[in-house]
Amino acid sequence: MTTSPPTLRYNRRMATLRLHTLFRFATPMLASALLALAACGDSGPENALADYAERLARPLDREVSASEPAALPRPPRVGKLQLALEDDSLGTLDFLSLTGCEVQVTIGKRNSSLGRMAAPSQRLLLDLEYLRLAPACIRHLRGSDRDELANTLEAAHALKQRQLPARIFNATLGSEEYRELWRVPNRLGDYPAQTGSAVTTALEAINDSTRRWLAGDFRANGKAFELQLSEVARGDGGALLKALGLQARWLGAANALLRQDEGPLCAGPIRHRAADILPNVVGRHFAEGIQAWSADLARREQALLPPLRELEKTLGTVLPEDYRAWRESRDRHLTRWSSAPRRHVEVIQTLLEPCGVLPRA
Questions:
Q1: Quick one: 250 and 334 in the same domain?
Q2: Which burial class, exposed, middle or buried, applies to 81 when counting CB atoms under 10 A from its CB (0-12, 13-18, 19+)?
Q3: Contacts of 56 (CB under 8 A, 6+ apart)
């Protein structure tokens, strides 16, 4: 994370407060020390946030009271999400009756013991292969006056097309890999400084494939798809939730102490001594330190969430109720937690503007 000028800002539709004059005593060295602290172990960000709240409390002679850490929304277990699908009639086919059809190999793999126990991603890939190869075999069989067998393959083809959105859900949003994306780490470390584009690239590639498959282009690169799922499993959705929840918890505690109803800091000739201390605390410990971390969190949220929500929208008709309930809880938490910096800036404005130390945006 880089040191920014002493500017209190919030990048998501909030007023920009320029505090160059107000925070003229804030130094980049102190901001760097704060960011270094945030990089040291899991307690780093929390230490920085807690220290900031304590520094706000001292000149006000108040106590900081942080709420208990919020329970982070965790996706349901995969067993509760996997959609049960009607079986086709291909398991009873005479394998040799399909000689001359490329789809014969696909059906053989599907009917093998490994095929029956295959992971959801492999079942999806087998269905896509069948959807791609079966039409040529059906035409071949009809040309050979084997209409009954052709009808069987055609019925299976129609069934697999209807089931395709559910197959995709089972292999993606309902899979172990996508659940692992939301695993909450024990340590945040310097999150999100070390995140990259690998997981978002994988999510977007899976979305691109999903659109093609649902549009009737059943080509699939199985190896690439499995690698994309592996990359998703290494993603940082859980870390993002933890970091946003931590931020909201401590900024909420800071807001609570600043809002305590003991009269305004400044009223006419009366000026509380905190009116000259708090601006420096905000400048040094929030504007130059915590807010830079908050901006990084906001950027990470804006990168990670859209491709996930896009796939949820694409597969909306097949999302099971357990998934919908979890998604609603997740988004409710995200909406509240993501706005914590904006709410904190508003509280600071309300408190200090009567003292003439915060210029209007």
A1: yes
A2: buried
A3: 64, 254, 257, 258, 278, 281, 282
d(CA 93, CA 89): 7
Q: Which two tokens stand for residue 233?
A: 């499993």
d(CA 60, CA 348): 14
Q: Domain range holding 152?
A: 83-173+196-233
pLDDT in tens, 130-151: 999 999 999 999 999 999 999 9
Task: Please provide the DSSP assignment of 52-98 as one string.
Answer: HHHHHHHHHT----PPPPPPPP-PPPHHHHPPP----SGGGS-GGGG
Domain co-membership, 18 together with 62: yes
Contacts of 73 (CB under 8 A, 6+ apart): 241, 326, 329, 330, 333
For 23, 256, 271, 279, 280, the CA distances from 266, given in Å and listed in that order, are: 19, 19, 4, 14, 17
344 and 255 in a common domain? yes
Q: Reply yes or no: is the peptide bond before residue 264 cis, omega within 30 of 0.
A: no
Q: Is residue 87 part of a domain?
A: yes
H or E segment to which residue 284 belongs: none
Q: Which two tokens stand for residue 167?
A: 């197959």
Q: Within a 10 A sphere around the Cβ of 8, how many other Cβ atoms?
A: 26
Which residue in 293, 19, 45 sits closest to 5, CA to CA?
Answer: 19
Residue 265 lies in a domain: yes
- Per the rule left: phi > 0, alpha: psi between -120 and 50, beta: everything else, 119 is beta
Residues facing 7 on adjacent strands? 18
Summarised one tens digit per residue, pLDDT across range 286-309 is: 988 899 999 999 999 999 999 999
Residue 96 makes CB contacts below 8 A (sequence gap 6+) with: none
